[in-house]
Predict the 3D structure of the following.
Amino acid sequence: MPKEPQKEHKEPVKDYQFTEQMSVDELVQQMNKAWGFTAGKLAVGVNIMESMLNAKGCVKFLSFPADIIATGTRGVIKELVKRKLFDVLITTCGTLDHDVARCWKDYYKGSFVMNDSKLHQEGLNRLGNVLVPNNSYGMIIEKKILGLLEELYKEGKKELSTSELCREIGLRCCNESSILYWAAKNNIPVFVPGITDGSVGYQLWFFSQDHKDFRINLLKDEGDLNNIVFDAKKSGALIVGGGISKHHTIWWNQFKDGLDYVIYITTADEWDGSLSGARPREAVSWGKINEKAKRIMIEGDATVIMPIMTSALIDRLYKKKTA
């Protein structure tokens, strides 16, 4: 006779059931029963995010790359920051570029398959299937950032950490559509370890050519991160994509016995040994994620996954608040 399934193998897969006016959170909760490969992981990810937000004394990190800020997913990140659901942001220089530019200029829908030589001749830059006109990017960034740096220099602010720079950009160069604006308003630090890798970074270098005593102090950022981590009772992170922002987040958390809550969202594979594709289990071996951490890896496009997870989370938190 075949053996009885173990206890953990007795939960059956359920089909989705649809009703009029069904909320996104109700859909996500069904994913936890429908399972279906990545769908179940998304549902678990929302549960971990909820646990992380409810954990007392937990410092919550949000790490993400710049490319998604060129899309409407910028609004997802902005909403998480506006609602103060995270305490620390770690990102790349391109996030500053796109966040500032899109406060004042539009990007446009395009396609992955276009005539790139023709686009170049027309002054259009292609980011995946998003089109970025020259006057919506380099020109507006140069105007805003050089103007800001001149103001700061005249005020005697000749040395800034990246978090201090991001705060000034948010307050002086952005509007309410901006991630940096709401981070500054809510006193949420934004760290950019690769600050020179983008248009804002280029403007910093360009400004320094005529202002030789102007400095960006990266080590002050590291000191601030050190203090945040060492003061934390617990820590958690939603880590979108990979690269320097992902590694900076997990690197610092190894000094407090690793992250206690982790959600990875990525399209990268692990077979090439890349940090972007590395699964949470690899970070456990380094002590960057705690052995007992609640963790999940969600494979997929963040521009699809993030809006669903965020909508479900906000709905869940609202219901709890009004219950």
User: Anything to note?
Assistant: The two ends are 49 Å apart (CA to CA). The first helix runs from residue 24 to 34. Residues 27-43+50-98+160-322 form a domain with the Deoxyhypusine Synthase fold (CATH 3.40.910.10). The longest strand covers residues 289-299.
